[in-house]
Specification:
Layout (H helix, E strand, L loop, with lengths): L3 H8 L3 H10 L4 E7 L2 E6 L4 E6 L7 E5 L12 E8 L3 E3 L2 E12 L2 E11 L8 E4 L2
């Protein structure tokens, strides 16, 4: 079940995300790090790409994590992204959804895990990318 925030975001389309990602592919990563549940890329041409889950509706807990050492990808070329859904989990508070974001680089792939913990009414993800 999709939450209201995800449904509203999907009405606007994803043109900004497509443009931000497309303009970043092929660039050399100077730094990549997780800050305030946002994946931040700094590129050799002094541009940035920021990716995050923008599907927040109300009473959810959304966060992004990784077990990978992102410093291993400094100096790599950004090649592609892939979203992968994981099975939903139930816990003592309600539903816990996970969606993986695989980031493909010339140094290999690293994986981010987007989490959404909610009571069953606020499901789904809306991963966006922006070039500030």
């Amino acid at each position: 079940m999709l939450g209201l925030g995800v449904m509203i975001q999907s009405l606007g389309g994803n043109e900004d995300t497509v443009n931000a990602v497309t303009s970043s592919l092929g660039k050399v990563i100077d730094a990549v790090y997780l800050s305030d549940n946002r994946l931040v890329f700094q590129f050799g041409d002094n541009t940035k790409l920021i990716m995050y889950d923008n599907g927040q509706s109300c009473c959810e807990t959304r966060y992004m994590r990784t077990d990978d050492d992102l410093t291993e990808y400094y100096g790599a070329t950004l090649l592609d992204f892939e979203l992968k859904s994981a099975p939903n989990m139930a816990d003592e508070y309600g539903d816990h959804e996970v969606q993986f974001l695989d980031v493909k680089t010339s140094n290999g792939v690293f994986q981010m895990a987007n989490h959404n913990e909610h009571n069953g009414y606020y499901g789904g993800f809306w991963i966006v990318a922006r070039s500030p």
